[in-house]
Amino acid sequence: MTLHERIAEGRRRLMAAGYPAGTAAFDADVLARHVLGWDTARLLARSREPVPDGFDPLFDAAITRRVRREPVAFIVGTREFWGRDFVVTHATLVPRPETELIVEEALRILPAGSPTIVDIGTGTGCLAISLAAEREGARVFATDISHEALLVAAGNARSHRVEGRVHLVRCDLAEALLVKADLVVSNPPYVPEQSAPALPADVLNYEPATALFGGPDGLRVIDRLLARTPALLAPDGAFIVEFGYGQEDSVRAAAEREGWTVRRVLDDLQGIARTVVLGRSRG
Predict the structure, then answer these.
(1) According to DSSP H, which parts of the chain are helical?
(2) H-helix segments, 141-247
(3) Which end of the chain offers a freer environment for a tag, N or C, measured as fewer CB atoms within 10 Å?
(4) Can you tell me the distance from the alpha carbon of 110 to that of 160, in angstroms, rounded to the nearest whole number?
(5) Do residues 58 and 45 make contact, with C-beta atoms less than 8 angstroms apart?
(6) What are the two backbone dihedrals, phi and then psi, of residue 280, each rounded to the nearest 5 degrees?
(7) Is 123 in contact with 150 (CB distance < 8 Å)?
(8) pTM as predicted
(9) What Rg do the C-alpha atoms of the chain give, in angstroms?
């Protein structure tokens, strides 16, 4: 049997488990490359060769984990974000493409020189590390309440050679910080608790609930951030925060109650309002 045929078998198993054809094909290919340690070009070039020794049991195990709805990122151990690979574990959320909006906007508005950045709820560290890597003069503070998540972030910071400029702090939100930042960013928990039954199994059963759910309406953590973040900001600083589907009006209203000015709302690739850029209007 050739590699191509064996990977096709894996694809059919995923389709039989309910995955759409496109998803099944993509996942089977990613899992095969992970087991082989090959890139896409090498797999394409050698796909008609016989299956290498030792491939079958490892590939079968990976497909079985995916059949059980475990995210591919947890099976392979990494997820790409802003052009870099980040280690992920069950202690962290899987970085998502829509969160790259925060990086894109941050790089657009950060002042020149050596800005100070705070990332609240850093998880894998994908935001803090990406910003530190893109702005070599930046000093970044990244917080998380989870010790296990901070261990993951520390490893990612070392891998991307920014450990000297990304300072990891274990605390609730940013309660331990006494800085004046040019920019604060956050991808907080914002899924309403009552929405749990509607979440895909690969999210609900594998990603940490503390990083997903933001109370009954999803806004509990965002409300706390809106109240706490002004104390961290320099006079002309900005706060960029991600929120969930259908929450734009509530976030705008809550921000205005806390004295924020809504500078900009960014839509994700599906046209869904996803990220808000805030500045201070008083105080």
Answers:
(1) 3-16, 21-36, 40-46, 55-67, 72-76, 100-109, 126-134, 147-159, 201-204, 209-212, 220-228, 248-257
(2) 147-159, 201-204, 209-212, 220-228
(3) C
(4) 21
(5) no
(6) -90, 135
(7) no
(8) 0.93
(9) 21
Tokens of 218: 């999803």
Cβ(37)–Cβ(46) below 8 Å: no
Distances (CA, A) of 224 to 64, 127, 159, 207: 41, 20, 32, 22
Element (H, E) at 240: strand 233-242
pLDDT reported for residue 283: 47
Render the burial of 47-70: b for 16+ CB within 10 Å, e for the rest: beeebeeebeeebeebbeebeebb
Tell me the backbone φ, ψ of residue 241, rounded to 5 degrees.
-135, 140
**If you average pLDDT over residues 62-85, what whole number do you get?**
97
Q: How far apart are CA 34 and CA 30, in angstroms?
A: 6
Beta bridge partners of 166: 140
Q: Which ranges of 68-99 does DSSP label H, i.e. alpha helix?
A: 72-76
Chain centroid to Cα 129, Å, comes to 12
pLDDT in tens, 93-140: 999 999 999 999 999 999 999 999 999 999 999 999 999 999 999 999
CA distances from 229 to 72, 153, 265 (A): 34, 22, 18
pLDDT bin (cut points 50, 70, 90) of residue 281 is low
Q: What is the dihedral of CA 32, 34, 37, 41, to 10 degrees?
A: 60
CA proximity to 227, closest of 214, 213, 237, 239: 239
Selection from 18, 15, 5, 243 nearest residue 32 by Cα? 5
At residue 282 the predicted structure's pLDDT band, cuts being 50, 70 and 90, is low
**Do 126 and 104 touch, CB atoms closer than 8 A?**
no
